[in-house]
Design brief:
- With 333 residues, this protein is an alpha/beta fold.
- The protein folds into 2 domains: 177 residues, Alpha-Beta Complex (Quinone Oxidoreductase, Chain A, domain 1), CATH 3.90.180.10; 127 residues, Rossmann fold.
- The protein has 9 helices and 16 strands.
- The strands form 3 sheets. Strands 3, 5, 6, 7, 8, 15 and 16 form a 7-stranded mixed β-sheet that branches. Strands 11-10-9-12-13-14 form a 6-stranded parallel β-sheet, with helices on both faces.
- It starts with a strand and ends in a 6-residue tail after the last strand.
C-alpha cells in the first residue's frame, strides 16, 4: 500500500512516499481503509522530532505519519466486539493515517452518523475533541464566565470560540493579523485583538474593568504565556495546551503567585480520551453540533499523498489558515 513515512527527523524533505506492507491488526485493533486524513501541527511536530521522547505519544522512527483520519473498517481484531466490518469511523492520536490502510486501537474509534461525511469527520475529530475537553473538562466554563483564546483563527481556536459562544461565555480573542481577528469576530468573539507584543494583556484588563479573564486558552507558548498570566484574574486558570512559538523553559512557580495565585495546567488530549465511551461521547457532541449548524468546521485545503509535503510547508510557515485534509482514497466522493 502507499504511505507517507519518515525515517529521520527534519523538514518537509524527509517525507517519503513509499509502498509498504499492509498492516495487520492486533487483537484490540481494527484495520481501516483510509478515506481522508487530517493534517495537523502534531504531524509537523512528529516530523520535527518533538515527540521522540514522549511517553504520552510514543511514536518512534521509522513511522507512518498522520494522527487523525476517517474511513471504513475492513478487518477487526480477535478481541474487538463493538466495531463491525463496514462501519464508518474516525479517530485521532493514533499514527498511520497518511496511508491507504491504518491499524487503529478500537478504543480510539468513533462511529459516524450517517449525515457526517468522511472528509468532515477527518477535519473535525482532533480539533473538535481537543476543544471539547478543554472547554468542558479542564476550564469547566459556564454562562457568564470570561475567557481569552489565543490563535483564535486557527483550527482549534475557531472551534473553541464556537463552543464557548454556545455556553454563553464572554470571549476575548487574539490573532496575528487584522484579517485573522475578523475571522474570530465573525465566529462570535466579543473582542478580538492583535497580540501586540504582549499588549493584549493590558487591553483585556481594560475591557474587564481591571479584573482579567477567568480562563486563558494558550496554544502559543513562549511568545504569550507570561502575558497570559497578566490577562488572567486572581485565582484564574491558564491552560497551556500548545507551544507553536516554543516552550518556556525558565518558569519559576512563584510567578504564578505573584500574578494572582494563578492555576496553570498543561493538559494533553490522550489523558482525556482514555476509553471508547469517552471518545464516542466527545465525537457525538461535536458531530451533533455540526449537524445542528451550531458548529462550522470548514476545510481550508485538500491535498493528496503526492503533494502532502506542500501542506506541511504551508502549515509550518503559517501560510495556511484553517483545517486541511489529505484525500487518500480517490474513489471516495
Amino acid at each position: 500500500m502507499k504511505a507517507i513515512t519518515i525515517e529521520e527527523y527534519g523538514g518537509p524533505e524527509v517525507l517519503q512516499r513509499r509502498d509498504i506492507a499492509l498492516p495487520q491488526p492486533g487483537p484490540d485493533e481494527v484495520l481501516v481503509r483510509v478515506a481522508y486524513a487530517g493534517i495537523n501541527f502534531m504531524d509537523v511536530h512528529t516530523r520535527q522530532g518533538k515527540y521522540k521522547a514522549s511517553k504520552t505519544y510514543p511514536v518512534r522512527l521509522p513511522c507512518t505519519l498522520g494522527m487523525e483520519g476517517a474511513g471504513v473498517v475492513v478487518r477487526v481484531g480477535d478481541r474487538v466486539s463493538d466495531v463491525e466490518v463496514g462501519s464508518r469511523v474516525a479517530w485521532c492520536i493514533s499514527w498511520g493515517a497518511y496511508a491507504e490502510y491504518a491499524c487503529v486501537p478500537a478504543r480510539l474509534l468513533a462511529r459516524l452518523p450517517e449525515r457526517i461525511s468522511l472528509d468532515t469527520a477527518a477535519a473535525a475529530m482532533f480539533q473538535g475533541c481537543t476543544a471539547h475537553y478543554l472547554v468542558n473538562d479542564v476550564a469547566r466554563l459556564r454562562s457568564g464566565d470570561t475567557c481569552l483564546i489565543h490563535a483564535a483563527s486557527g483550527s482549534i481556536g475557531q472551534i473553541l470560540i464556537q463552543l464557548c459562544r454556545r455556553k454563553g461565555v464572554k470571549i476575548f480573542a487574539t490573532a496575528g493579523s487584522e484579517a485573522k481577528c475578523e475571522v474570530a469576530r465573525k465566529l462570535g468573539a466579543d473582542h478580538s485583538m492583535l497580540y501586540d507584543e504582549g499588549g493584549f494583556a493590558q487591553s483585556v484588563r481594560r475591557l474587564t474593568s481591571g479584573n482579567g479573564v477567568d480562563v486563558v486558552f494558550d496554544s502559543v507558548g513562549l511568545a504569550t504565556l507570561r502575558d497570559s498570566f497578566r490577562a488572567t484574574r486572581s485565582r484564574g486558570l491558564v491552560i497551556n495546551y500548545g507551544n507553536v512559538s516554543g516552550s518556556l523553559h525558565d518558569l519559576d512557580p512563584i510567578e504564578l503567585g505573584e500574578a494572582g495565585s494563578l492555576f496553570l495546567t498543561r493538559p494533553r488530549l490522550a489523558d482525556h480520551m482514555t476509553d471508547a465511551q469517552t471518545v464516542q461521547r466527545r465525537a457525538d457532541d461535536i458531530f451533533a453540533a455540526i449537524l445542528d449548524h451550531q458548529l462550522i468546521v470548514p476545510i481550508a485545503g485538500r491535498y493528496t499523498l503526492e503533494d502532502v509535503h506542500m501542506a506541511h510547508e504551508k502549515l509550518e510557515t503559517r501560510q495556511q489558515v484553517g483545517k486541511c485534509v489529505v484525500k487518500v482514497d480517490q474513489s471516495v466522493a
